[in-house]
Amino acid sequence: MVTYTLISSINDVPDSWDGLQDDDLFLKTRFLRATELGMPNTIKPYYIAVFNEEALCGIAILQHVDFNLDVSLDEANSSLKKQIFKAVNFVSKGQIIVLGNLLQTGQHSYFVSSNFSLDLFFETVYNAIDELSKRIKAETNKRVKCILLKDYEITDRIHSQDNFLKQNHFFKVNVQPSMVMNIPPQWNSFDDYVKGLNKKYRRRFTTASKKGKALSVRLLNQVEIERFEPEIFKLYNEVASNATINLFKLPEHHFTTLKHFLQEDFYIYGYFLNEKLIGFFSLIKHNDTLDTYFLGYNNELNYTYQIYLNMLYRMIKHGIEQDYKHIIFARTAMEIKSSVGAKPLEMVMYMKHTNRFLNRILKWCVKLMTPKKEWQERHPFVN
């Protein structure tokens, strides 16, 4: 018999949770405990454990989100786009459930044993989502408006679930790609990367390096992360507040909490001008992959010292020197990430409105606001 448990704290998941899979750090309890304690106050995590004859055979991550599309309408560059953003916010504002983690790019939402039916797994997960919807209604007197399944590469097994997706009225949403760099095995040092750049982009690297010479860069230890916590949060917020769309705001202690639980699997590099922190970026070690995480910098100083571009080069340097095979740069700022060698990886999500009529409207609105490729892919390496 197949059963499931809907769990509201990572401390209460089965003891066998971590033993079910070894590949995905972002489904391990130490990462989930860190993010649970450092979660934005508009997001409440839940966990699903699926059992077959009392043996754990699948796990999934849910997030209950108090959703309000915080849109900088000045950045929405047409009146039509502004109206579409407003329509989406009107239709979906309120309680939503996410299968996955809004803080991460990529499929870190579920794992199911290879010997268990994928159809039955998703049917069971949906039953848990339905239970959570009823629980939210009972506790808050608010109805869940939308359900989001995020985010999947085109090779993910969820795309084989046509019957599940159609029967439950999910529609596909094309989203911005994740920018990924695959590190060639012949790159043994950062110099090998620089030598591989063509003349145009090598000059660009040289110019950026010269502008950033006045800055000192160092890897921060746990004590320093705690000491610079207010400055780190301020710099993060300076960048986040300039984003066109904000789905959440991290709490100030988020980075300190991640470092406490992840230790040597979590890095923060600090950028200093005259001993004053003016920028940082964070990285997560994920097997042979380096995942870039949140960053922040002083916008007024960014152009003068090419802070952001120099951060991208430093991420690549770290990835090569620590012998990673891939660097996940995530989405946003695709063109500049492309200019340092990252390639777009197509990603999709699935979503639905719980009201059948509004689901049709939402599908139409989301299709109109789905980003077209408005950036030019760069090719920085010698052919």
From TrEMBL:
Gene3D superfamilies xref list: 3.40.630.30
Signal peptide: none
Organism of derivation: Aurantibacter aestuarii
Pfam families associated with the record: Acetyltransf_6
Domain annotation BioF2-like acetyltransferase: ranges: 200-335
Example GO molecular function: transferase activity
Name of protein: GNAT family N-acetyltransferase
InterPro entries in alphabetical order: Acyl_CoA_acyltransferase (IPR016181), BioF2-like_GNAT_dom (IPR038740)
Record SUPFAM superfamilies: Acyl-CoA N-acyltransferases (Nat)
Keywords on record: Transferase
Superkingdom, taxonomy of origin: Bacteria
